[in-house]
Amino acid sequence: MSSRTPLMAGNWKMNLNHLEAIAHVQKLAFALADKDYEAVEVAVLPPFTDIRSVQTLVDGDKLKIKYGAQDISAHDSGAFTGEVSGPMLAKLKCAYVAIGHSERRQYHGEDEAVCNAKVKAAFKHGITPILCVGEGLDVRKAGNQVTHTLAQVDGALQDVPAEQAETIVIAYEPVWAIGTGEVATPEDAQEVCGAIRRRLAELYSQELADKVRIQYGGSVKSGNVAAIMAQPDVDGALIGGAALDADEFVKIVRFRDQ
Ligand SMILES: O=C[C@H](O)COP(=O)(O)O
């Protein structure tokens, strides 16, 4: 484990309405103590319709839980039905936004150019991107996971200046491990997370690469998080299913106790 502050982020995906979101965040807030926030940054990524409610709760009770969105439009405003813009998310004080999640890539055809535009949109509005990258099963079976994932990193960071890139979070999520119960081994996670950090050093500088937090995502649970977090280039986790269970998510935040 590195000296970078780990980021444990719960990606709720399309789960929990705004009332359930309030109850869930209240439960997290009740369970988490100052020492948890000192050791780990904790964030939730609810559906768009929940964000205002989460913001009101976090602001009102001065909670230390960060929150963000699961997607952002590449456009600031205009005729883009169904999209939500950077200025809108910034107005709700979103700290983070997931970009290029494999479900966005798979179901909405998001490619590197789209991810690149969204990364730029997030930075433009002061929101930290959590750039999601990772290979599918066929690519893994062919042994091309590193090449594939680094091409996604290269594409999304095209023309992103160092002063922005140094704050990005990159989530390595092998698609075959998402929601399947198939977790990559800690060595699998380290192989690709380490390669991502080396690529950041090539694209920018070693100093910058050493600052960037690289998460692992894919069937993370309290029972496997400690071994994954023990890897030198893994600085947190992007958690899907297990983040919907407040008790389990708190255990993941407290990975050092597992
Ligand atoms: O964004 C989270 C990932 O897709 C992981 O989801 P999962 O923990 O349910 O496998």
UniProtKB/TrEMBL annotation:
Function of the protein: Involved in the gluconeogenesis. Catalyzes stereospecifically the conversion of dihydroxyacetone phosphate (DHAP) to D-glyceraldehyde-3-phosphate (G3P).
Subcellular compartments: Cytoplasm
EC number: 5.3.1.1
Gene source species: Streptomyces ochraceiscleroticus
Highest taxon in the source lineage: Bacteria
Pathway, per record: Carbohydrate degradation; glycolysis; D-glyceraldehyde 3-phosphate from glycerone phosphate: step 1/1; Carbohydrate biosynthesis; gluconeogenesis
Gene designation per UniProt: tpiA
Active-site residues, Swiss-Prot/TrEMBL: H101 (electrophile), E173 (proton acceptor)
InterPro entries the UniProt entry points to: Aldolase_TIM, TIM_sf, TrioseP_Isoase_bac/euk, Triosephosphate_isomerase, Triosephosphate_isomerase_AS
Family as reported in the entry's similarity comment: Belongs to the triosephosphate isomerase family.
Record keyword Cytoplasm present: yes
Protein name: Triosephosphate isomerase
Subunit text: Homodimer.
PROSITE patterns: TIM_1, TIM_2
GO MF annotations in UniProt: triose-phosphate isomerase activity
Residues annotated as binding substrate: N11, W12, K13, G179, S219, G240, G241
Catalytic reaction list: D-glyceraldehyde 3-phosphate = dihydroxyacetone phosphate
Primary location class: cytoplasm
Keywords carried by this UniProt record: Cytoplasm, Gluconeogenesis, Glycolysis, Isomerase
